[in-house]
Amino acid sequence: MSLKNLIKSLITILVFIKHEDEMQRTERRSQQQRSSEMTEKLRTATIQLITEVGYVNTNTVNISSRAGVSRGALLHHYANKSDLVIDATSKMWKYSILATQLLCKKLTNCEMDIDTFVDGLWRESFNETYVSVTIDIMIAARGDKKLAQHLDTSLAEMFTAYRAAAAVLFKNAGLNAAQQEVAMTVIVSLLRGLRVQEMMRPDAELAEAVRKALKLLLKTALVANNTLVPERGSSKNPNL
C-alpha cells in the first residue's frame, strides 16, 4: 500500500472513530434525558397520589399508572415504594425551601413588598399539596423507621433554612438570632396552620383576612425593631 493510500485509510478510520464516539455520547445523553424525564414523572405522580388518596393507599401500581410508565420501569429506577416516596418528598421539600429563600431575598432587595411576600409564601411554600403530603408522611413515619429518618433529616434541613431565611429577612430590623427565629416561626406556623384549617373548613374570605393580619403584624415588627419580638423565655413584652 502506498503512503498516500495509507494516510487516506488512517483518516477514514479516525473519522469513523470520531463519528462512533459522537453517536455514543449522543445516545448516553439521550438515555440520561429519558431517565430524568421518567423519574420526574414518577415523583410528580407520587406526590399527586399521596395528596389525593394518602400514603397508605399509594402504591407502585397506581403510581406507575398515573405516571404513564410500566411498573417494571418504575422498579428499574426505584427498588420499592418507600425509596420513591423518599425521593419525591425530598424534591418537594427542597423546592419549598428554595421558594422561601428566594422570596426573602426579593423582599430584602426591595423587589417586592410585604404583601406580595406573604402571598408568595402562601402560594409557593405552604400550598395545599406540600402541607397535605407533609402531614401524611408524618403520620406514616410513625410506623416506618426508614421514612421517619428521612422525615427527621428533611425537617431539620427545612428549619435550618428557615433560620437562614430569617437572618436575611430581618437583618435590618434590629433583631438578634433568637428573635429572628421567633419571628420566622410565627410566620411559618401561622401560614401552615391556616392551610390546615383551609383544608378542614374551606373559607377563602377568612383565610385572606388572616393573611392581611399577618401582613400588618409583619410590617409593624419590621419598623419597630425588636419591640414586638422578645427573646425566647423573655417576658419583655407580655402582649406578644
Verbal overview:
- Residues 234-240 have low confidence and may be disordered.
- The chain has helices spanning 3-53, 60-67, 71-77, 81-108, 114-125, 128-140, 145-169, 177-200, 204-223.
- Helix 2 packs across helix 3 (71-77) and helix 4 runs parallel beside helix 7 (145-169).
- It is extended, with a radius of gyration of 26 Å.
- Helices cover 78% and strands 0% of the residues.
The number of helical elements comes to 9
Unreliable stretches, pLDDT < 50, 5 or more residues?
234-240
**What's the end-to-end separation, in Å?**
95 Å
Helix proportion = over 70%
Number of strands: 0
Which series of helices and strands comes N to C?
Answer: HHHHHHHHH
The chain-level structural class is: mainly alpha
Largest beta-sheet details: none
Tertiary shape: extended
Work out the radius of gyration.
26 Å
Overall average residue pLDDT: 84
**SS strand fraction:** under 5%
